[in-house]
Amino acid sequence: MLAGTNSQGGVIDGDRLSSLVDSERGTIDRRIYSDPDIYKLELERIFARAWNFMCHESQIPNTGDYFINFIGEDQVIVVRDNDGAVQVLLNTCRHRGNALCRAEQGNTKSFVCSYHGWNYGLDGRLLGIPGQKNFYRDQIDPAEWGLVKAAKVDDYKGFYFATLDPGAPDLHDFLGDVGRTGMEVLLAQGEVVAVDGVQKNIIDCNWKIAVDNLFDWYHVKISHRSAAKAGFLNPRMMMPMDQMVMLGEYGHAIGGPMISEAQQAEIDQLSDEERADIDLLSDAERAKLAPRINERRPVRKKATAEAMGPVGVRASGHPNIFPNLWISTRGMQVSLRLPRGPFETEVWWFTFMPKKFTPDQRRGAMKFISHSFGPAGLLEQDDGENWSQSTQSSRGVVSGRIPHNMQMGLGQDEVLEHPLGQKRIETRVNEHAQRWTYKCWAEWLRADDWDDLMAMRSPSPTGRI
Amino acid sequence: MDAGERLALQFDVEQFFYHEAALLDDREFRAWLDLVADDMHYWMPIRRTVTRDNLDQEFTKIGGMSYFDDDKDDLVMRVEKLEAGSAWSENPASRTRHFVSNVRILETYRDEIAVEAAFHLYRSRLNGKIDHWIGKRRDRLRRMEQGSQQEIQPGFQIFQRHIFLDQTIIRSTNLSNLF
Known about the structure:
The complex is a heterodimer of chains A (465) and B (179).
Chain A: E1 2-5, E2 11-13, H1 14-20, E3 21-22, E4 27-28, H2 36-47, E5 52-56, E6 65-71, E7 74-80, E8 86-90, E9 105-107, E10 111-112, E11 119-120, E12 126-128, E13 152-156, E14 159-163, H3 171-184, E15 192-194, E16 199-203, H4 207-212, H5 220-223, H6 225-229, H7 235-238, E17 243-247, E18 253-257, H8 261-268, H9 272-280, H10 283-289, H11 302-312, E19 318-321, E20 325-327, E21 333-339, E22 345-354, H12 359-372, H13 383-392, E23 404-405, E24 414-417, E25 423-427, H14 432-446, H15 450-456, E26 463-464
Antiparallel strand pairs in A: 1-2, 3-4, 4-23, 5-14, 6-7, 6-9, 7-8, 10-11, 11-12, 13-14, 15-22, 16-22, 17-18, 17-25, 18-19, 19-20, 20-21, 21-22, 24-25, 24-26
Helix pairs in contact in A: 1-14, 2-14, 3-11
Chain B: H1 3-25, H2 29-33, E1 36-45, E2 66-70, H3 72-83, E3 95-109, E4 112-125, E5 129-143, E6 156-165
Parallel strand pairs in B: 1-6
Antiparallel strand pairs in B: 1-2, 3-4, 4-5, 5-6
């Protein structure tokens, strides 16, 4: 079966794609991190097809506010139009392709091309063409030459996503239970507002290495040892033995520390005020409540617990919205891992604050956040070079032929199903979520279109895993 | 201040900056910390590409997101991290060179001095990675009692370092060095 033709005319067949990711053996062919044909196929079949995170509504509150983002390597303008709706427009003039908007964000009345002056409205309509009468002799219909819009735009409680593929299911179905549970992590302390400023830096690694790391609770103790030694990280929190993994359709997953049923039962008895009080305790005071009440923050409120479901509320790890949106465990940041060729990734960090935080809470949260991630973060500083070297080693002729080992926990766990339907694996540190991500990744690449993907995608696993 | 006093102050401030740069480049981070006042604010906002109409959005403000927003304790933590052999982003150790120029004394008030300077931080990492960070600093220095530091060094402590990069998106794997 031929599964894909990339834009250079090369062909990658389905059998080869299957052999690259062997989820039965738990091995990954390193060429998926270096092969330019695979990279092109990823842009076409994953990024141009999936729902991609754009921004939060509070980043563009007013008419004419815009924020530039990417869907794969397609640059888009996310803009609030005159009717208050959020538009996602390809940032490329219909005339000669010039970027209309060359700033990262701002406010404007319209988008005027700096090349020949074609002028587009906030909804993408072509408002004016210089020389329409004299040069084009009125033989051009502006209605046909508006900016290309994303096929669908929708939001999950204020977090905007867009897809370029009209065949995509709606956002709710794309996210599924696991994706929606993941998004709820952001709302654990109520409605949020974006903090001004997106941290951005470029790491010379493949985007997938940066994505699968978010499930990786194996590296924390080693990669981030110096942050613990300097007193930034609580060593007890670095490698929690009790882990939970939730695997969702299309590759969404949540992996990391688990709140036990008994611990959640304790929390269930508390009012929202009591939960908020626990969050205000210092680490030392908080430790005294353990293990009766899990030490991970924040304690999710009743409404969030309800939205996350009886299993999801106990998942305290990192969600990834496939393909590349990481929601951080404290739930106030998300990171995009934007592909820039097989060997380069832009890492973006967005930060949010609960609207009802007091100035003190905000200061405390900002202090933790600004010292964790981002290029100067005490944690993230030490990630980049590992990812870079893991990627670059794929270039070697012989090194490139040696598969990566992703076997931790393979075949040794059981998927448990809650009577209300949510599934999870309760285990120790493992690589289930990474294996699932790559298994789904291969399915996205094999599928010819959304219908094909919906027909062939793996259901969320059951039984032995 | 007469010309002689201004010249002397300019000289002292520049010599202090060179001394500070040498400590960082020679990896004498503990000695560098001695130059940091207890009320230090060390801050690098996020810079963005914006149109001329939107220049008010070019930098994030204090309280918004930033790359660094540190007090002295945070800087001590960064130094402790650098000293840990397991700070992999700096082990093997990077080679850095801090250049400081265009030093302009903006204001003096009692024992405090506001200075703006251009900087160029060069980093050579592993065998093939080169990073350059160029920008301006707005520093505030406090003149210390004589004898509080090595005699030949001008006696200042830094209580503000605000770092404004000339690049927007950070084009390096990390910011694991001190500016």
